Backbone:
């Protein structure tokens, strides 16, 4: 693996303004192919309005130094990450360079060698110059190269539908690789201002709209690229692609997924869209059935007792409306129960065993708090938790709940049990 860092050269060659002739010479020193490659890719942009302002913003030596330092920090530990996916160090180039808004990351080929191009101007524009986001960006592009080395990165794309499936498939495999390499299946470097929560909540709608556009032979570009957006959110296709590949991995290994032909991908995507995902604002027979099947190790298996007598039947209609159910691929991940007890307004949360320990309790709980405030704006929110359940207490504290008092109550089996009562403290 060869690392090419041109930060010092950028500062020397462009001390004040951007000069295209100087840039062409600079790019040629990296690779004779690079100037034409970048300029050809940037033809669709208005250089004066869309490219030059981004370049001028990037030519701030303080930001370039910041990028440089974080890039060096990532590279020092990069091989530790790569061993999770590669049997040996991959034969690739990683180049930190000044491009023409060709993308923060670009997995491509230069001089016959697989290369990751990191555009410093786009990294700065998107605020991906901190160490965490830069590592994720690099790992994502390496994910594309892993796909290329281990499967079929490019499918025949002579129709809009094929192009749409290919784009989703490519970014999905790269996102899964990114998650494997960084060791966090919930990390998306696109996640800002509630992006991930919005994607999760609207997953069913996103899937259906993507399929509708494929069926109607419409462009799916809105789902990809920071300059585009779907319902006000950029890069939604990265989330959707990741969920699609995760769905495929229930049947295939990642290497098998990387080699799937278009025919199978197209058929699988149609099936994937039909799966229930997103948020339901009531509890259904399907939800109750899932909850009844949840099995926890002691002492957490006490949670199942709430549904011991339900046996998959519907709860009474009014109670159904007091639940938020979070679905993903026909599987219930969590539910929030909103209820009143002793004239107090309570929230309860149930998390499926498969999602425990993955820092998702807070994600769902915050959505439940938000919905509760909308429904009951003048209510103070409480939670009741068993005193031995320190994991839950810690989660509630992280969401703003403060311990108020303890009390002894009877459990469903008539035994005394100590509960902690916590109240949500609003920030001023």
Residues:
């Amino acid at each position: 693996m060869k690392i090419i860092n041109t930060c010092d050269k950028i500062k020397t060659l462009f001390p004040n303004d951007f000069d295209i002739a100087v840039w062409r010479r600079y790019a040629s020193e990296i690779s004779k192919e690079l100037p034409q490659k970048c300029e050809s890719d940037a033809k669709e942009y208005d250089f004066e309005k869309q490219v030059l302002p981004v370049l001028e913003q990037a030519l701030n030596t303080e930001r370039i130094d910041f990028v440089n330092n974080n890039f060096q920090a990532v590279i020092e530990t990069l091989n530790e990450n790569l061993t999770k996916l590669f049997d040996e160090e991959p034969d690739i180039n990683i180049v930190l360079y000044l491009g023409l808004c060709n993308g923060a990351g670009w997995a491509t080929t230069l001089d016959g060698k697989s290369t990751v191009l990191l555009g410093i101007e786009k990294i700065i524009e998107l605020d991906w110059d901190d160490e965490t986001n830069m590592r994720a960006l690099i790992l994502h592009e390496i994910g594309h190269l892993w796909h290329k080395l281990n499967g079929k990165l490019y499918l025949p794309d002579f129709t809009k539908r094929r192009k749409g499936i290919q784009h989703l498939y490519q970014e999905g495999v790269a996102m899964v690789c990114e998650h494997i390499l960084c060791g966090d299946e919930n990390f998306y470097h696109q996640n800002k201002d509630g992006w991930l929560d919005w994607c999760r909540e609207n997953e069913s709608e996103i899937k259906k709209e993507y399929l509708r556009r494929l069926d109607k032979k419409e462009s799916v570009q809105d789902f990809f690229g920071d300059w585009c957006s779907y319902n006000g959110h950029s890069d939604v296709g990265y989330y959707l692609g990741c969920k699609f590949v995760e769905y495929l991995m229930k049947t295939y290994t990642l290497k098998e997924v990387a080699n799937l032909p278009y025919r199978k991908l197209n058929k699988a995507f149609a099936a994937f869209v039909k799966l229930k995902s997103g948020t339901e604002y009531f509890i259904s027979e399907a939800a109750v059935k899932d909850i009844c099947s949840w099995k926890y190790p002691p002492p957490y298996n006490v949670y199942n007792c709430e549904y011991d007598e339900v046996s998959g039947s519907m709860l009474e209609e009014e109670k159904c409306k007091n639940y938020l159910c979070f679905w993903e691929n026909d599987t219930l991940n969590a539910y929030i129960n909103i209820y009143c007890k002793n004239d107090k307004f309570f929230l309860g949360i149930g998390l499926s065993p498969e999602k425990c320990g993955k820092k998702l309790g807070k994600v769902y709980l915050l959505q439940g708090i938000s919905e509760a405030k909308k429904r009951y704006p003048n209510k103070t929110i409480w939670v009741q938790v068993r005193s031995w359940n320190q994991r839950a207490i810690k989660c509630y504290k992280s969401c703003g709940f403060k311990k108020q008092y303890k009390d002894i109550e009877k459990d469903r089996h008539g035994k005394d049990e100590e509960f902690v009562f916590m109240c949500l403290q609003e920030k001023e």
Notes: Confidence is low (pLDDT under 50) at residues 307-314. Residues 93 and 115 are 5 Å apart (CA to CA). The chain has three domains: 2-150, 160-274, 278-424. The radius of gyration is 25 Å.
